[in-house]
Design goal:
Layout lengths: L7 E3 L11 E3 L1 H8 L8 H9 L6 E2 L5 E2 L2 H17 L3 H9 L4 H8 L32 E3 H8 L3 H9 L6 E3 L2 E5 H14 L9 H22 L4 H34 L1
Antiparallel strand pairs: 1-2, 3-4, 5-7, 6-7
Helix pairs in contact: 3-5, 9-10
Length: about 260
Amino acid sequence: MTDDPLTEVPLPAPADDEAPRKSLTIGAVCKQLSQEFPDISISKIRYLEDQKLLSPRRTPGGYRLYAQSDVSRLRTILRLQRDEFLPLRVIRQELAAGRTFEEAQAAASPSDSSEAPATPDGRPGAALRRLTFSLQNKGALYSLEDVVEETGAEPRLIAELEDYGIVSGEPRAGTRYYDETQREIVRAVTELARYGVAGRNLRVFRTSAEREAALLQQILAPSLRSRNPERRKEAVEALENLAAVASHLKHLLLVRDLRRIAK
């Protein structure tokens, strides 16, 4: 059943003399959050519910009703997506730990912000846009079977990505293993595949990433080649920050161009 439009639904009055609380329909939630999140939509909220990030209560007729705690949770999810570029898997973990947006943001940012260059809004530069994965630590390795199970990808899709150089598994004892970044690449491509995007179409993404990596390497080449361990460490940290800023810039440019298409 389709959810109600922009309305507020009063809940039954509590047993004591407190003022009745109000629940919001999904349309009213969109309207309330649209100023901060212009791209919010009913379908996006439903998608987050499908991903088990939201659990609004339902009326006997099947309408979703959102309490203020649900709206606050949704706001936290949207901010972590927009400001920290966290994947839903990580956001789910942050919410399960009971963290607010500020606490999750602090956990995602460097612990010592006093030495980082500040941005105009007072936040350290490294926290401007966070890389989901460290450049130095590849994290755990996952077998092909693990990647297939966790991402829902078809084995032939992963083989195709190998052929086009999008991912590259590491053979060990007859089994191919992928790091966490490559696993998430497979997950993202699986989502694109639902819209008919094939492996050959991903060349444009790979070429773009290679060019950006070459540019950032050129900027920091002297420091990255330094024999001083401390200087190399600082260079890698600067590389992560540059990559995060470049990623955000690319996102903004993409939004700009897509707005032209959507007109």
